[in-house]
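haha ok so turns out i had the wrong file open the whole time. this is the CORRECT one, sorry everyone. sequence first:
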Amino acid sequence: MELRINRRALVGLGLAAAVAASSLAVLCTDSGIASSHREAPMTAGLPQIDNTDVYAFVSPDKPDTVTLLANWNGFQEPNGGPNFYPWDPRARYNVKIDNDGDAKTDITYQWTFRDEDKRGNDTFLYNNGPVTSLNDPNLLYRQRYTLKRITPNGTRTLVSDGIAAPSNVGPASMPDYGTLRAQSIKSLPNGGKTFAGQSDEAFFLDLRVFDLLYGGNLSEVGQDTTRGYNVNTIGLQVPAADLALKGDPKRNPVIGICSTTDKFNGSRYVQVSRLCNPLVNEVVAPAGLKDAYNALDPSKDADVAPLIKRVTDPEVARLLEAIYGIKAPATPRADLVEIFLTGIAKQNGPIKADLNSQVLNKDAGKLRPSEMLRLNMSIPPSKDPNRLGVLAGDLQGFPNGRRLGDDVVDIELQAVAGAALTGKLVPGLTDKVDRNDKPFGQSFPYIPLPGNVAVNQR
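then structure:
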C-alpha cells in the first residue's frame, strides 16, 4: 500500500485525531481526560470494570505480530491492602476487532476470572510469607482466568487455566516481582502470547486540565498526575494474520479496536464500559451521555445524532477560545469525523492521505462510521518513535493505533485548537508531561512492572 502524506496533512491528521477523540467522548458518558479513568458516573463507582486505556501497535521486536493492551481499575495506590486490586469474577473483559469496516465485531478476545482464596477465617493477609512463584503456597489469594477467541464461526478456548500476576504487595512479600510477571505470560496455540496482571500506570498527563484547562493560564502543567499509580492490564500479542480480514494482512491491513467490559446483572451480561480512542468519553461527552456511551456498541454510533454533533462541533475547542482566546475552527469538523469515525483515507474526507481506514482493505465492504481506534498493520515499527506520532511524521504513532509512548494529550490539545486545519501548532499549548516516569520494556508485554512505593512518598 502506498502511503503519501505531506507535512500539512500530517499535522492535520494527528491534531484532528485528538480533537475527534474529545468530541466523541462528550456524547458518550462523564467528563474526564485520563483516558477513561473515572470517565463516567457509573464506572467511577465500579473501578474493577472501568476501562482506562487501550493500546494497539505493531510489535517492535516482532513486526509480523500486533500487540493489544487494555487497562482497567486506574489510580491504584500501590499500598492499598489488604485486598489490593482483583479482577471482577462476575465480569467479562473483552478486546474486540472489526476488520471489514461494518462497525460490527468480527473477533472478540474474552477473559473471565475466578478466585482461588485460601484465607478463609484464618488470616487477613494476601500472603503469609515471601512469594517467589505464582504457585507459591505463601500466596493465599490468586486469580485464574480463561481466554476465549470468539468469531461468528464459533468459539475457541485459548487458555483454560491461566494465572494472573498478583498485585505487587511490596519487596518483603514479592522480592522479585519481575519473575512473577514472566511466569504469568502464557503462550497461545498460534504462537501468540497473553498476560493478565498488575502494571505501572503508563498513561502520562497532567490532570489539572479540569481546573479551568490548566489553571486558566497554563500555569498548572508539568505534573504527571498518574505517576506512581498502578492499573490492571490484559495483554495480547498475536500474528497479524489472526486479526486481518480473511487472514490476509497484506490485502487487508487495517483493523479497528475497542475494549469493553460486560457485567453480570443477575440474569445476563450487560456491557457497562467501553474504550476505543483515548480521551473520547472524558472530554467530549457531556456528563449526561457518558454512561450511555459506555453501553453503546460501535455499530450504533452513526445513529446517535448527539454523538456526531460532539465530533463535528467539539466543546473543548470552544473552551479554549473562551479561556485562552484561541479561536475555534469553523464547524462542522469533517476532519474529526474522518479521524474518529471513518479512519483516514483520501476518499473519506478532507485529509488527503491513505492511512488507517478499513476502506483500504481490498476485501472490505461498505464502511459504516463508528468510533474506534484504527491500526494499519502494514506500517512497520518506527526506528526512532516520536511522541507526537503522525503529527511529527511518525506514521506508526497515534492516531494510527496507539503506542505506550504516544503523547495523546498534547496531540489532542493541538488538534482541538485547530492545528489540524491550519498546519501550525499553537505555541505553548501542552501539559508539559512528555513521557512516562518508567521506561517501557523491550519485549511483550512492554508495559512497566507495577510499583510498590506509596504515591505520597514519591
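Confidence is low (pLDDT under 50) at residues 1-36.
again sry for the mixup
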